[in-house]
Amino acid sequence: MRSFVRFDAVVATDRNQALMAVADALGASGGWIEDHTLFSDVMAVVRFSLPGDRLGDLGRALAAAGLVLDPPVASVAAVSGAELSGQLTLTFSRGTGDLRRAVPAFS
């Protein structure tokens, strides 16, 4: 059975910058994004996988990018040699809930 971890972070920086920081941190830690869901400009949920012994690397990379996780990565036991699945929920404190995107016309 694969271990699962869940983290939350409230982000005050730019939404796109925070999402890129998460992608970069996962890549640098040997992990990858499995799926993501964006809820306007208020929240993003990123599902990921990474080697269990690289969880500390992910935590340090996210901390270096200014993302403070709840619970802290140090409080989660790493799983040596096993693949780890996880979910990171980012809440954007500057979000308005009204992100509009231009939809091209079609016929």
What is the strand and helix layout of this fold?
Elements: E1 3-11, H1 15-28, E2 32-39, E3 43-51, H2 55-64, E4 83-92
Parallel strand pairs: 1-4
Antiparallel strand pairs: 2-3, 3-4
Helix pairs in contact: 1-2
Structure characterization notes:
- The chain has 107 residues and is an alpha+beta fold.
- Helix content is 22%, strand content 34%.
- The protein is built from two helices and four strands.
- It has helices at residues 15-28, 55-64; strands spanning 3-11, 32-39, 43-51, 83-92.
- Strand 2 and strand 3 form a beta hairpin.
- Helix 1 runs antiparallel to helix 2.
- The longest helix has 14 residues, at 15-28.
- The radius of gyration is 15 Å and the shape is globular.
- The N and C termini lie far apart (49 Å).
